[in-house]
Every structure is written in structure tokens, then in C-alpha cells.
Amino acid sequence: MSYVSSVFERIKARNANETEFLQAVEEVFKSLEPVLERHPEYVEANLLERIAEPERQIIFRVPWVDAQGILQVNRGFRIQYNGALGPYKGGLRFHPSVYIGIIKFLGFEQIFKNALTGLPIGSGKGGSDFDPKGKSDAEVMRFCQSFMTELYRHIGPDVDVPAGDIGVGGREIGFLYGQYRRIKGVFENGVLTGKGLSYGGSLARTEATGYGLIYFVDEMLKQNHQTIQGKTIIISGSGNVATYACEKATALGAKVVAMSDSDGYIYDEKGIDLALIKQLKGVERKRIQAYLNTHPDAQYIEGLGNIWSLKCDIALPCATQNDITLEHAKTLVDNGIIAVGEGANMPCTNEAVRYLLEKNIRLAPAKAANAGGVATSALEMIQNSMRYSWTFEEVDSKLKNIMITIHANAAAASKEYGFGYNLVAGANIVGFKKVADAMMAQGDY
Ligand code: GLU
Q1: Which of 89, 104, 113, 125 is catalytic?
Q2: Do both 131 and 268 map to the same domain?
């Protein structure tokens, strides 16, 4: 058995019930055989097994009182996965599906993503099985305060810097920071990113993941002498990533005809009215179906999955993991798709990834394509340390350069290791080598 297979077998035995985590590990390991062949020192140092094991996993109780006065208990997580490149860095996800396997898959992906940005950030991830849907602002505040009452002792601007993910946006980061400041008694705003502009947030952070995704996809299309202009696009999701991907794609001349939430999707052949989506989803926190109230000529289709049966040139899964299955991938290919850009983390199953690559569809993998969010978080940390802020244009142009560089590095590594133009393999290799070298240099801990 090869070194890669034997390590994967051990990881499977030890983490048997964590399907998302095993899926993420398997996908990365697949790209690494040629790297390990060329670098026997990584095998000698048992780097694969070390990189797959989190440095530290913290699981804690989060008690809070709901609007009816009933005491609720949720489970909180923070995984400090890999600190070789910098302070642990990565978002918090509040969603009822959260359990250790989800946080571990996200933290594992974050290692390579953060390394790809070229900025000094290690990997961390956290969250809770708390469901913010339908909760009042006061309930969300009490939950966040309780969450931070435990978390504060584990984080810090040079230790671990959380941010948002699904279910955690500007509102939650504000409540979390307020509680951190109250407990610590210091204005240490570099401890969280994705903050509001009034207390140290960065301009363009809100837009960064979605904009970065489009910069990356456009760069990928340019390799084929194409651009995003004039393309028809389907986006799943209607949260932060989906919203700003839609905004940038539209600004570059593409037409986004569908977006979704966890209940169903809207198809508007004239092009999605993004101002309305922002109002409904971002401000009023309503269901996407309400789009029909002012656009009766659009269609609302209940249920998930079917969104990928719509004809389009580019699919941007920006909702959650395992959104595009093998069946969906087949339908997309049959409908003449040219590219898929992963805005969410691990939105395509491994079978879908394999199929799309086989069919020569341009695939922008999440670790590379959605790295603009965390890269801009790192820019927020830099601004916080300087106690200074850059303009929107300055941050946006740094973001664009980072995305173009990630693309170039992933494409070059893929070629160097015999994968041709395969950004999935290339991104895994670049991220892995950067972290592996830093771990080797720091000894065997
Ligand atoms: N949750 C985002 C991600 O998956 C952003 C993390 C951050 O900004 O730290 O990369």
C-alpha cells in the first residue's frame, strides 16, 4: 500500500463517522502522490498524518435564554488546525447541521486556502449547532455573548482570529466583539475580522469572497481566450458570497438568471434584481420566494437541486457543501456548461469534481476561488495592526492581484506535477507545499 493510502486508511479508521472531513482529506490526498514521490523528506517526516490531525480541538457548552425565558443549550466548537504559517484564521459557522465533522472539514480546507493567499495566516474554524433562522436580534445577541464568554480565553490577535461563515455576518461579529472587549477590557479589534467599519472593519471585506470568486473565474476563462462578459450564470445561495458574486459578474457584463435559498430558487430570465435580493435576504431576512411579490413574471421553484437543471454557461455554487452531485454535474455538462466556480466550501462532491474534470470543464476549486474572503480578512488584520485603513479601491486592487496570483501559482504547480491545467490539483499542491515546508522548518511537533 502506498504511503498516501495507508495514512488515509488510518484517518478513516479514526474518524469513521465524519463523512465531510474524510471527503475533504481524500480530495487533497489524491493530488499529492507526485509531490511525495519528488519529496521523500515529507514522507519521512510523516507530514500527511500530521497535517490531517488538528493541533487543538475545543468543544464547549453555550447556554443562553430564549425569548420565552427558556434556557437553551448549544454546542460550541473551535478547532485550531494548523498554526505553522501564522495565527489560526477562519470563520465561525452557526447552523443546525454543525458537528465536529463539519468543522474539521472546513478547518482542513482552510489550511490550504489560507496558504494559497500568500499571507501569514494559519488555519482555524469554529461554530455552533445554533440556528439563527427566526431568532430575534436579542436572542442572537445573548447567544453570541455566551459563545464568546467561553471562546475569548482561546483567541487573540496573535493567537486565533475568527470571522464569519454561514449564519455569521456583520451583526454576529459585532455582538461577539462587544463581549470580547467587555471581558478583556482592551480595544483589541484584530481578534476578529469581518467587523463593521465603525470599529475597525475593512472596506471591501463584505464584497471580497464574491468579487474574488469572479476575478478568479474570469482569469480562468482568459486561459481559453474567453471572459465572463455575455455569459449566463446560475448561482446557488443568496448569502454574502452569492450576493457579491452576482454583483461583480453583472458588473462585468454577465447575466445571472437564478439564485436560491434553502427552500427553493428564483429563475428570472431577464436577470436577477440584485437590489431586491439584498433587501429581502440581507435586510429583511425573508425567504427568497418573496421575490415574486414585486416580480410576478419570475418563477419560484420549491426544493433544492433542480437549480442545476437550468441551462447556463457558468455554475457558481455559493450555498453550502455537496450542493453539486454527480447527477447534477452530468446535467450541467449535457446542457453545455463551460465552467464551474466554487464559491462555497466543498460545494461539489468528489464524484462531481472527477466527472467535470474528465469532461474538460474549467473548474475553479473553492480553496483557490473563494480565498478572497479570508485574504481580505488578513488585509483587515494588517490595517488593524497599523491602526490605519485603506480605501475601497486599494483593498479591491490588492484582492484582485491576490486572486490572479493564486490562479497563476495553481496553474503552474498543476503543470509542473504532470496534471496539465487542473486547478484542483494545482491548488492542493501549492497550499500543501507551503505549509509542509513551514512545518518541516519548525521541527516535529
Ligand atoms: N469563512 C470564510 C472562509 O471560508 C472566511 C474566513 C475568514 O475570513 O477568516 O474562508
Answers
A1: 125
A2: no
- Of 114, 165, 380, 402, the one to substitute when testing ligand 1's pocket (max ligand atoms within 8 A of C-beta) is 165
- Asked if the structure places residue 385 within a domain, the reply is no
Residues 140 and 282 reside in one and the same domain:
no
Per-residue DSSP letters for 300-358?
Answer: EEESSSGGGGS--SEEEE-S-TT-B-HHHHHHHHHTT--EEE--SSS-B-HHHHHHHHH
Ligand 1 pocket test, pick from 374, 383, 384, 399 with the greatest ligand atom count within 8 Å of Cβ, gives: 374
Establish whether residue 202 lines the binding site of ligand 1, counting it when its CB lies within 6 angstroms of any ligand atom: no
Residue 264 located in a structural domain: yes
Q: Does the beta carbon of 193 lie inside 6 Å of ligand 1? A: yes
Is residue 430 in some structural domain? no
210 close to ligand 1 (CB < 6 Angstrom):
no
Same domain (yes/no): 179, 263: no
Q: Is the CB of 165 under 6 A from ligand 1?
A: yes
Kindly report the length of the chain.
445
Report the side by side order of strands in the sheet with 88-94: 56-65, 71-82, 123-128, 88-94, 160-164
Residue nearest to atom 9 of ligand 1 (CA): 90
- CA 143 to ligand 1 centroid distance, Å: 21
CA distance 29 to 432: 10
Q: Hey, what's the torsion of the CAs at 358, 113, 154, 204, to 10 degrees?
A: -120
Each residue's pLDDT expressed in tens, for the chain with a length of 445 residues? 899 999 999 999 999 999 999 999 999 999 999 999 999 999 999 999 999 999 999 999 999 999 999 999 999 999 999 999 999 999 999 999 999 999 999 999 999 999 999 999 999 999 999 999 999 999 999 999 999 999 999 999 999 999 999 999 999 999 999 999 999 999 999 999 999 999 999 999 999 999 999 999 999 999 999 999 999 999 999 999 999 999 999 999 999 999 999 999 999 999 999 999 999 999 999 999 999 999 999 999 998 878 999 999 999 999 999 999 999 999 999 999 999 999 999 999 999 999 999 999 999 999 999 999 999 999 999 999 999 999 999 999 999 999 999 999 999 999 999 999 999 999 999 999 999 999 999 997 6
| 82 and 230 housed in the same domain | no
Assess whether 281 carries a catalytic annotation. Answer: no
Q: Nine-digit cell at 375?
A: 485574504
